[in-house]
Amino acid sequence: RERVRAMFYHAYEHYLESAFPYDELRPLTCDGQDTWGSFSLTLIDALDTLLILGNVSEFQRVVTVLQEGVDFDIDVNASVFETNIRVVGGLLSAHLLSKKAGVEVEAGWPCSGPLLRMAEEAARKLLPAFQTPTGMPYGTVNLLHGVNPGETPVTCTAGIGTFIVEFATLSHLTGDPVFEDVARKALKALWKNRSDIGLVGNHIDVLTAKWVAQDAGIGAGVDSYFEYLVKGAILLQDEELMSMFLEYNKAIKNYTKFDDWYLWVQMYKGTVSMPVFQSLEAYWPGLQSLIGDIDNAMRTFLNYYTVWKQFGGLPEFYNIPQGYTVDKREGYPLRPELIESAMYLYRATRDPTLLELGRDAVESIEKISKVDCGFATIKDLRDHRLDNRMESFFLAETVKYLYLLFDPDNFIHNDGSVFDVVITPYGECVLNAGGYVFNTEAHPIDPAALHCCRKRKEEQWEVEDLMREFYSLKKTKKFTLKRASNHGEGESVKIPEDASSEKGGKKRNSKKNSHSLLSCPSQSFNSKLAVLGQVFLDNS
């Protein structure tokens, strides 16, 4: 853990010294470059990692720097996908963690605040991309002018289906449904255009809904679409999203899975098109753990770990039959996916093999990629040549998941036994109870926060109820929750009925039970959240 902390600061301090305010550090020349826009991206991406490492003073300083220095009114062509996961996701996560980090929050938080306004502003810049006949977004948008007239209508599947976590969070916090609406419409458009055998391809024309690249698999170009169906289902308690994923999961097992590897197949016929493992696919065991499929997850993870041990990293492409790298795809840009899966699986199993992977990762990265000014992308795992780039996800994801793997007592792993209660204009609100949902850039979203800012009229409390709450309770209370009796697979606790509004908009009774114990909301579908934040299916 301490070696991981030292890795973080070696990279972070050199970014500040040599590259800020550019997006990313160039570690071989000790300077910076803009890559995904011009947002000081590494600073936004590293912000919640600072808090996970316990550095509240630097978190507070960076929040101030970002408020003063980041401007989205710029004539820049930006990736809709990357801006969402890194900028919107990073700002939302930092906003929701800011009180924990000792930032002086404004009245009305978490339903308002400077970082939330920045996240909303960035997301609004992306909305023009969704104005297509299908509801599927363009891949690139100009932050000043919207979609360029000559913009290609071909977008990858992940670039269409990786918005629900950030956009639904934004809608719930701001009360503006437009974000969640466009994200859902895009998700459903992909679902509608799946093949007869239940698979989606790699790239689609967002104007005509015709598949341009018809390779189906779980890796690059598709990956986070599947991830967001599961995480969206958990975050929003949404049965429809989970059932979509489970249908895809059947087709993926039927057509792409061979001996615990996943290949690429033709989306209409199911015939193998590429017998290749991509490093981006290494998120899959972690995703399987979230639906409780631990045995399959571990078997696939161990396959991927053998590749790591062969090279000291995961090459971008690995030819499974030949057992070697693919030409021009021999690099490892310090990606987090295998470490991410190890972190999830270690939470589920406590298998020490997973800690060994973590140690191997620390040793490899330090030995091969550490340079005077940070950590450099490995251009070729065969001869350890380096590239002059340190991607922002190294600090956002790779270091964060490594640290969390080795830090079982981190607040992120909270099992719900400790939490904060905050008074908002919309009632009492539970925060920091755990169950965090990581976006695909490893920015943790507190799912409880989505219930803090109900702005629909029928769900607002009466003025008298609100005043009574303000006078009867202190502004913030801290509770320690005793473990309740076992309710099914995971230990959970009952929420008083008045702690969450019914859909029908019944008035809240704020007098009754205002001090009773809190618990997970009752689940509307067949999956239950265990205390570790994993979903177990009833029949598993």
From TrEMBL:
Major localization listed first in the record, in broad terms: endoplasmic reticulum
The protein's Enzyme Commission number: 3.2.1.-
Entry-linked InterPro entries: 6hp_glycosidase-like_sf (IPR012341), EDEM1/2/3 (IPR044674), Glyco_hydro_47 (IPR001382), Seven-hairpin_glycosidases (IPR036026)
Catalytic-site annotation from UniProt: E82, D223, E316, E337
GO CC, alphabetical: endoplasmic reticulum quality control compartment; membrane
Compartments where found: Endoplasmic reticulum
Binding residue positions for Ca(2+): T440
Keywords: Calcium, Endoplasmic reticulum, Glycoprotein, Glycosidase, Hydrolase, Metal-binding, Unfolded protein response
Region of interest (Disordered), residue spans: 490-521
Gene3D superfamilies: 1.50.10.10
Xref: Pfam families: Glyco_hydro_47
Enzyme class: hydrolase
Gene Ontology biological-process entries: carbohydrate metabolic process; endoplasmic reticulum mannose trimming; positive regulation of retrograde protein transport, ER to cytosol; response to unfolded protein
Gene Ontology MF terms in the entry: calcium ion binding; mannosyl-oligosaccharide 1,2-alpha-mannosidase activity
Ranges annotated as biased composition (Basic and acidic residues): 490-504
Necessary cofactors: Ca(2+)
Biased segments, Basic residues type: 505-514
Similarity-based family: Belongs to the glycosyl hydrolase 47 family.
Function: Involved in the endoplasmic reticulum-associated degradation (ERAD) pathway that targets misfolded glycoproteins for degradation in an N-glycan-dependent manner. May initiate ERAD by promoting the first mannose trimming step of ERAD substrates, from Man9GlcNAc2 to Man8GlcNAc2. Seems to recognize and bind to exposed hydrophobic regions in target proteins.
UniProt protein name: alpha-1,2-Mannosidase
Source species of the chain: Semnornis frantzii
Upper classification of the organism: Eukaryota, Metazoa, Chordata, Craniata, Vertebrata
